[in-house]
Amino acid sequence: MTRYFLFIAITLITLVSCGQQTEKTKTIYNFKLSDKEWQEKLSPTQYRVLRKSGTEQAFTGKLWDNKEQGTYTCAGCNQELFLSDTKFKSGTGWPSFYNFIKKGIIVGTDNDLGYSRNEVHCANCGGHLGHVFEDGPKPTGLRYCINSASLEFKE
Ligand SMILES: [Zn+2]
User: Fold this and answer.
1) Which of 8, 12, 29, 109 can pair with 126 through a Cys bridge, CB separation 3.0 to 4.6 Å?
2) String of DSSP letters for 100-128
3) Residue 74 bears catalytic tag
4) How far is the CA of 126 from the centre of ligand 1 (A)?
5) Which residue range(s) make up the domain with 36?
6) pLDDT tens digits, residue range 103-140?
7) Which pLDDT value is given to residue 61?
8) Is 126 a domain residue?
9) Per the domain annotation, does 93 fall within a domain?
10) CATH no. for residue 67?
11) Residue 148's CB: how many other CB atoms inside 10 A?
12) Would you say 10 and 2 are in contact if contact means Cβ atoms under 8 Å apart?
């Protein structure tokens, strides 16, 4: 009988710890809002891009041709994402950067179903920003193609 209970206990512990492991691999973001709160906070375009992984029309955003010196932040949570020093003229009609502010973004989240590997997200709220391509200028050779709608600009 004691053995039987021991077996049950071990089985339960195994089940619980397996459950915790599954939780751990899922990306947890510091800044969290409900879907309703996001809709209230963001404009319809910002919501479609940031929360539904949409893409704004090229040459329509407010920041693709912005040449001012400053910092680009997440329109959803104010996380600092890109510096104007790393912005370059890509000719695509979307703000383009060859580098990002350390810990500002996450690229590709294989753990979250439905995201492609080159998708760029805000590291703080998980908002969709754009995509990264390997045809950028030196020194990184990368092109972070970002929607204006997902950014705010601070001089
Ligand atoms: Zn964010």
Assistant:
1) 29
2) --TTSEEE--TTSTT--TTEEEETTT--E
3) no
4) 6
5) 28-154
6) 999 998 555 555 567 999 999 999 999 999 999 999 99
7) 96
8) yes
9) yes
10) 2.170.150.20
11) 25
12) no
Which of these is catalytic: 74, 122, 125, 145?
145
Tell me how many domains the chain contains: 1
* 1 occurs within a structural domain: no
pTM of the predicted structure, to 2 decimals = 0.80
pLDDT above 70: residue 8: no
Residue type, 52: K
Percent of the chain with pLDDT over 90: 75
Q: What three-state secondary structure class fits 60?
A: coil
Whether 57 contacts 49, CB under 8 Å: no
- CA–centroid distance, residue 139 to ligand 1 (Å): 26
The answer to whether residue 14 is domain-embedded is no
Distance from the alpha carbon of residue 18 to the mean position of ligand 1, in angstroms: 30
